[in-house]
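Render Pentapeptide repeat-containing protein in 3D.
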Amino acid sequence: MATLTNFIMPEKLSDFTNGQFEVIENEVVKSSDLSNLTVSGSLFSQTTFVAVHFKSCTFFGSKIKQCKFINCVFENCTFEFSHIEDCNFESSRLIGNTWKYSTLKGSSIEECEFDLVTFKVIKDGDRNQYDIFEETQDIEEIKEEVEAVLSFEQALTSSPKQWGTNLINFIKSAA
């Protein structure tokens, strides 16, 4: 199984052969393509990643804290029971990832591209307990959902005495 240590510190690989989890601190990783990598039960702290492309990687039970991701790509990665805290994302892409029981909070995200699922994880913080969306929605689907919510809110406020009828009509139109 390929692990991140093989790519960052190959000379220290023998230290991790007894099944210990990986601790990577104060490292700089530049211009790497990491595909189908499994990172399990690891701690990343105060590490800077520059132009690293994580493709189809699995982060399981890991903690990523106070790291910097500059011009990085997280594409089709799986985050399960992992937590990203107090990290800086600059000019990075987070697209097509799965966030099961994982969090991304207290981080700065500047000039980044991310999908609706990632947005919900950022917005919900540690309340991301359930998979709300399994796939990235396109902008038209998002607009339809927003319009439906706005029309529902308008129906409730336009005539307070008729809210029950408006609610039933809204439910019928949504079905």
